[in-house]
Amino acid sequence: MMGYISLSLIALLVVFAPPVVLADDITPIPAEKAQVEPWFKANVQPFPARRGTLDPDLEAAEASPRIITVNQKGGGDFTSINAAIKSIPVGNKVRVIIKLAPGVYKEKVTVDVGRPFVTLLGKPGAETNLTFHGTSAKYGTVESATLIVWAKYFMAANLHILNTAPMPKPGTQGQALAMRINADKAAFYNCRFYGFQDTLCDDRGNHFFKDCYIEGTYDFIFGRGASLYLNTQLHAVGDGLRVITAHNRQNSNDQSGYSFVHCKVTGVGTGIYLGRAWMSHPKVVYAYTEMSSVVNPSGWQENRVRAHDKTVFYGEYMCTGPGSHKAKRVAHTQDIDNKEANHFLSLGYIKGSSWLLPSPVY
Known about the structure:
With 362 residues, the chain is α/β, with parallel strands linked by helices. The chain has helices spanning 2-16, 23-26, 36-43, 47-50, 56-63, 81-86, 136-139, 338-344, and strands spanning 66-70, 96-100, 103-106, 109-111, 118-121, 128-132, 147-149, 155-157, 160-163, 179-181, 186-189, 192-194, 200-202, 206-210, 213-216, 218-223, 226-230, 233-236, 242-247, 257-261, 264-267, 272-276, 283-287, 290-291, 313-317, 333-335. It has one domain: Single-stranded right-handed beta-helix, Pectin lyase-like (Pectate Lyase C-like, 3 Solenoid), CATH 2.160.20. α6 (81-86) links the parallel β1 (66-70) and β2. Belongs to the pectinesterase family.
């Protein structure tokens, strides 16, 4: 009987023990911008230092990475990105780094769900452009993207991803995506996304963007992702109504949301909105972000459905610049205190300690 009780107690302790929280999941991003890079290097270390802490599948995949080279001029393993991706077997279980020679790749690229652990790697300081001209009229909105990713553990670095469809005329629909990310646990380093309406479909899963640039006109970051944007420039072009985010959270239990930390909001003209309520419960937070005078004084577009005033989560925390003044913000802008802000300022927001790795070296 004593042995039985002991085993029962052990089982209860296992069931009710609190989850292990790793330090890098709770250490907040520093307020001082000069400290951001040291914070990142301390909390997102390369694979050899992370053994035993990563998702088991990821840990196995990173142990023996494979490198494929792509060069349109010859001399590589392939001359196109799509050919390189198709060479990866369905059910892939190893990290495959597709190293791209600089140049312009005019391809519509899809990384399908059966090919996880793919990295698209451009050369730092050289332009590696992925371009296509897909439009919603031909493909449908979310299928118009130049790059579509369905596979887990994706990574991209040092790339320019463009949709070269023309800017739609004011008042007309012209969705044309640069990228759709519909996969969990994806990271983007030093990538630039160019489009107009709906540039980046940041859809499902946990995502991390660092040192990136995103350009567009209306809803140019949209979807239902749980994403942390660090040191990323959000640049609005064109004229008329411009909105940065249209987050697609639809209920209070949904853990998704966009967190912009140490970012910069720039653009031409006046009257850019930080976000709008495309759906009923969008969650978008800007922290330590520099906002130019291009930001509309009200900050966020007025909700067309008045009931959404009570369900949106629009947050601003210690932002700077002439566009950051809160005096004329819409009434439902959240006042975030230090404790609440930390939730949006750590890797825990995207469950990063179990999967986030730095970019490989070219």
